[in-house]
Amino acid sequence: MDLRADIDSPITLKPLERAIVPTGLFMELPVGYEAQVRPRSGLAAKKGITVLNAPGTIDADYRGNVGVILVNLSNEDFIVENGERIAQMVIAKHERAEWEEVEALSETDRGEGGFGSTGTK
Ligand SMILES: O=c1ccn([C@H]2C[C@H](O)[C@@H](COP(=O)(O)OP(=O)(O)OP(=O)(O)O)O2)c(=O)[nH]1
Q1: Where in this chain does the record put each dUTPase-like domain (predicted)?
Q2: Is 91 in a helix, a strand, or coil?
Q3: Is the CB of 37 under 6 A from ligand 1?
Q4: Does the Cβ of 39 fall within 6 Å of ligand 1?
Q5: Which pTM value belongs to this model?
Q6: Domains defined for the chain, CATH in brackets
Q7: What are the Cα distances from residue 10, in Å, to 85, 89, 112?
Q8: N or C: more exposed end of the chain, with fewer CB within 10 A?
């Protein structure tokens, strides 16, 4: 679903500035669910505006105003207007891990290789 700015007056984001933009959305998620705040591709592609902490996490026990941390990665000012669609949100179910401490991990071909260890071709 779309998240809209719920603000009394417009917010100006200068290049590289960020702001927490309230949405006026308050909710109660069931335990085992989270909401994820994501950028809108149109704003990103056309205006250089994205969600700084994407995906933002809304915890199930959060009861406050859902905020969107917008950042202006363009070289022009961007004005956030009240009611503007600034981000989108999905509700996601997640597992709860039970951690167990062990002496060794199972062996795999990859092992500790990561961060481009398989090359680019
Ligand atoms: O984009 C976001 C991210 C977070 N929040 C709210 C809901 C979330 O449940 C709470 C805490 O977020 P997070 O766990 O990402 O923050 P933290 O930096 O770990 O702070 P805290 O100590 O408050 O958990 O802030 C938002 O409204 N929008």
Answers
A1: 9-119
A2: strand
A3: yes
A4: no
A5: 0.92
A6: 2-93 (2.70.40.10)
A7: 13, 22, 49
A8: C
